[in-house]
Design brief:
Elements (H helix, E strand, L loop, with lengths): L9 E2 L5 E6 L13 H20 L2 E7 L13 E11 L3 E11 L6 E14 L11 E2 L3 H25 L2
Parallel strand pairs: 1-7
Antiparallel strand pairs: 2-4, 3-6, 4-5, 5-6
């Protein structure tokens, strides 16, 4: 297997991905707000695109950290999802996704949710493959880069304890 150091590192900006959709009535629940499952679907798509941009390979979703909905997104509003790779490890990477709603009538934008996902880069034979490291470019990138390692260690400890029951 290749080593991560064989690939030139990539800046966070190389993976930045943004998606925008109108929330239509068929995407909503009985209260006229977007279905949680629809939001999760869009989070996985935008996250996978960011991971593919970073790795240059197809990716699979390995983990999704907790997801809390902070405010609803109503039918007719826009849902905006912004994603980028926070940190890369040997074959996996953490992607951060922020979700916003935009009311185009009054221009208001609300942060509605955030999520962290782990993707694994796959080769043409469906095997995990090494990826480039990440270069944090801003103070915010550096903070997310450092925090990603803490989240990864926590995930690995949780998995280890679950398998050792």
């Amino acid at each position: 297997m290749n080593l991560t150091s064989e690939f030139p590192a990539k800046p966070v900006s190389a993976s930045v991905t943004e998606m925008t959709e109108v929330v239509l009535p068929n995407d909503t629940n009985n209260f006229g707000t977007i279905l949680g499952g629809k939001v999760m679907h869009l989070i996985d798509i935008v996250g996978a695109i960011a991971a593919r941009r970073h790795s240059g390979n197809l990716v699979v979703t390995a983990a999704v950290d907790s997801l809390a909905f902070l405010s609803p997104i109503k039918a007719g509003e826009l849902i905006i999802l912004k994603a980028s790779v926070n940190r890369a490890f040997k074959t996996s990477m953490e992607v951060g996704v922020k979700i916003f709603s935009e009311n185009t009538r009054d221009g208001s934008v609300k942060h509605t949710a955030s999520a962290y996902l782990t993707y694994v880069s796959m080769d043409d034979h469906g095997k995990p493959t090494a990826i480039p490291s990440v270069i944090p470019e801003t103070a915010d990138d550096k903070r997310r880069y450092d925090e990603a390692n803490l989240r990864r260690n926590s995930r690995l400890m949780a998995c280890s304890s679950e398998f050792n029951r």
